[in-house]
Amino acid sequence: MALQLAHQVEDRDDAAGPRFEVLSAAIRDDLDHRRVVAITVAQTLGGELASVSVSARQSDSVAVLRNPDSSGPVMWGVTAPGSTYEIRVLLTHNYVTPVNVVLDFDCTEASGERTWRRTLTATPKAFKSSWNTGFTFR
């Protein structure tokens, strides 16, 4: 009975936690002409969060999460349902499509002590170059 009650509390806490959704994902060139995946993520459900730490799992195609502030995970401050964020992930030079970018979200509740880990996979659209060489072929 105690075990069943513990599972019910755990299930209730999990259901109260945040949910995230990939709104868009596309392979692009960054300013240094390296291939990145630009991912737009939204928090769709759950309460307000005090903080969210986002990391990308490395693979044969995924090199590292691009963080302008440091080399670690991207840290978001307070978030709530409806909040959207852009994440950039650097690809390896020999990436293979389709690319699956696995993102881990470590979340802390704003009005309590509960924490959650959520995982989301983004599969970007095909590469579109953002620069022009200036040559015209006839």
How do you describe this structure in short?
The model has no long low-confidence stretch (mean pLDDT 88). β1 (19-29) and β2 form a beta hairpin. The chain has one helix spanning 2-16; strands at 19-29, 35-45, 49-56, 62-66, 74-76, 84-91, 101-109, 115-122.
Keywords:
single chain, 138 residues, mainly beta, four-stranded antiparallel beta sheet, 11% helix
Q: What features would you describe in this structure?
A:
It contains one helix and eight strands. The protein is mostly beta strands. The chain has one helix at residues 2-16, and strands spanning 19-29, 35-45, 49-56, 62-66, 74-76, 84-91, 101-109, 115-122. The strands form two sheets. It has a four-stranded antiparallel β-sheet, with no helix packed on it. Strands 5-3-7-8 form a four-stranded antiparallel β-sheet, with no helix packed on it. A hairpin with a 5-residue loop joins strand 1 (19-29) and strand 2 (35-45). It is elongated.
Set down the secondary structure blueprint.
Blueprint (H helix, E strand, L loop, with lengths): L1 H15 L2 E11 L5 E11 L3 E8 L5 E5 L7 E3 L7 E8 L9 E9 L5 E8 L16
Antiparallel strand pairs: 1-2, 2-6, 3-5, 3-7, 4-6, 7-8
